[in-house]
UniProtKB/TrEMBL annotation:
Belongs to the MsrB Met sulfoxide reductase family. The keyword Metal-binding applies. InterPro entries: Met_Sox_Rdtase_MsrB, Met_Sox_Rdtase_MsrB_dom, Mss4-like_sf. It catalyses: L-methionyl-[protein] + [thioredoxin]-disulfide + H2O = L-methionyl-(R)-S-oxide-[protein] + [thioredoxin]-dithiol. GO terms for biological process: protein repair; response to oxidative stress. It comes from Aspergillus avenaceus. Residues 76-200 form the MsrB domain. This is Peptide-methionine (R)-S-oxide reductase.
């Protein structure tokens, strides 16, 4: 089992890297030396981010999934069968949608739940959502136990990645201490592509 998982990780890793075999973290860090959190938004805003996205995905994936098991253990092949190419790029390869383009960026229903677009697990309530102006859907909290956090050291800076706790699908990042007038001191910055809105709250646990 462990060998199988390792093989899967290695296959993913090498697929993401193509033929490169040099340490990707070092290359990425040296190319983008800034370590200031304030650089995060401008970096995401760069058009044509695909090559950055592939670097980002491989480093984050190798760090985060070594010892992780999720209830939903579908393989990449199985995910490709049910996700759109864009959903697969973001959820399974830790990509990022372009700011201001997401379906739920300016979506503020009075009630309802945002589920994982991969496995349909409920993640955020409509009442968790707030206007951050950052270009991605922003939530000040998640449903209890719905989201898992990892340290993401890609691009030479330290951020906190958030994934669906049921399938490991990449959601985005969480930032603290920005001064938004919300009940918490956090902003869950989530890709719309990673979410599917459902009216009503019947699936929410809390
Ligand atoms: Zn999920």
């Amino acid at each position: 089992m462990r060998f199988h998982r390792l093989t899967t990780i290695l296959r993913t890793f090498t697929t993401s890297l193509g033929h490169r075999s040099t340490p990707i973290i070092t290359k990425t860090a040296s190319r983008y030396p800034s370590s200031s959190p304030s650089r995060i938004t401008p970096l995401k805003a760069i058009p044509g981010l695909s090559f950055l996205g592939s670097f980002f995905s491989s480093t984050a994936q190798s760090q985060n999934q070594d010892n992780m098991t999720y209830p939903d253990q579908r393989s990449d092949q199985e995910w490709r069968a049910v996700l759109s190419p864009e959903q697969f790029r973001i959820l399974r390869q830790k990509g990022t949608e372009r700011p201001g383009t997401g379906e739920y960026d300016s979506h503020y229903p009075a009630q309802g739940v945002y589920n994982c677009a991969g496995c349909d697990a409920p993640l955020y309530k409509a009442t968790h959502k707030f206007k951050s102006g950052c270009g991605w859907p922003a939530y000040f909290d998640a449903l209890p136990g719905a989201v898992k956090r990892f340290t993401d050291s890609s691009f030479g800076m330290e951020r906190t990645e958030i994934v669906c706790n049921n399938c490991g699908g990449h959601l985005g990042h969480v930032f603290k201490g920005e001064g938004f007038p919300t009940p918490t001191d956090e902003r869950h910055c989530v890709n719309s592509v990673s979410l599917r809105f459902q009216e009503g709250e019947s699936k929410a646990k809390a």
